Amino acid sequence: MARKPLIAGNWKMNKGTVAEAESLVSDLLKALPQTDGVAAVDIAICVPFTVLHTVNAALGGASRIALGAQDVFWKSAGAYTGRISAPFLADAGVTYVLVGHSETRGRFGVPEPDFNEAILRHFGDTDAVVNRKIHAALDAGLIPVVCVGETLTERESGSAEAVVRLQVEESLTRVSAEQVAGLVFAYEPVWAIGTGKTCSGEEADRICGVIRSTIHALYSPEVAEAVRIQYGGSMKPDNAADLLSYPNIDGGLIGGASLKAADFAAIVAAAHH
Ligand code: PGA
């Protein structure tokens, strides 16, 4: 059974004003074919909360680009200042939501010397939090894109596989086989995000394979075959075709290169092969 690749842009905290978002969407609509090969690749853009409605309106119902959000809180409503719930996202037209991106995960127990970049990046998501967010997204009819990946220290100590396997196992607590088959995973080695350092295609494929075999062991071969697993981390027009040619890599989660319409369109084109 062939899995349909998903190319998803993650704008992060960029293009969050109406004018910026409208301009990038307008460029994307021009750069991406709206008819050719539409059936072969799914496309999404995960945008800041402030422009979800703007982007939804700018895409219009007929666009092949799906709307995505970058995070979600697991409660549906209540006294949770600053949080955004899954039903709010569904109402805003969202289809996909990133869950457990390394920039929202926590590194509890690691002493942080200062109020530095490390603190700014880590919102404290643990695997248990990721699991709750997955359930909340599924309950609201959203498709979670579950991000996993090891840090440089974890890779250097030889524990990349074990770290990723544990993240997958813990995030899937009480998630049914049917739900898992519809999920998207993104393998994003933390050391390759925004650094220009890409994981080799071979190694990215190997770890995506570890994710697939973990799902096989937890569920069944059929569920493992159905689930889509993206690679993310410095994917660009010049390395996308290679990364996307591997059997276990079903698309990409694109940060920096999703902010330029031509680059994003080139990566989408690379996924058509
Ligand atoms: P990058 O980000 O493509 O800029 O490395 C990927 C991500 O964090 O999703």
Question: What are the salient characteristics of this protein?
Answer:
binds 2-phosphoglycolic acid; alpha/beta; eight-stranded parallel beta barrel; 273 residues; TIM Barrel; single chain; globular
Characterization of the model:
This protein is α/β, with parallel strands linked by helices. The chain has a single domain (6-270), classed as Aldolase class I (TIM Barrel, Alpha-Beta Barrel). Helix content is 40%, strand content 14%. The protein has twelve helices and eight strands. It has helices spanning 18-31, 52-59, 86-91, 117-121, 127-139, 152-156, 160-171, 177-181, 201-218, 221-226, 237-243, 261-270, and strands at 6-10, 42-46, 65-69, 96-99, 143-148, 184-187, 228-232, 251-254. The protein has an eight-stranded parallel barrel with strand order 1-2-3-4-5-6-7-8, surrounded by five helices. Helix 1 packs parallel to helix 2 and helix 5 crosses helix 7 (160-171). The two termini are 16 Å apart. The relative contact order is 0.15. The model is unreliable at 108-112 (pLDDT under 50). Bound molecules: 2-phosphoglycolic acid (PGA). The site of 2-phosphoglycolic acid has 13 residues, from strand 8.
Topology:
Elements: E1 6-10, H1 18-31, E2 42-46, H2 52-59, E3 65-69, H3 86-91, E4 96-99, H4 117-121, H5 127-139, E5 143-148, H6 152-156, H7 160-171, H8 177-181, E6 184-187, H9 201-218, H10 221-226, E7 228-232, H11 237-243, E8 251-254, H12 261-270
Parallel strand pairs: 1-2, 1-8, 2-3, 3-4, 4-5, 5-6, 6-7, 7-8
Helix pairs in contact: 1-2, 1-12, 5-7, 7-9, 11-12
Bound molecules: 2-phosphoglycolic acid (PGA).
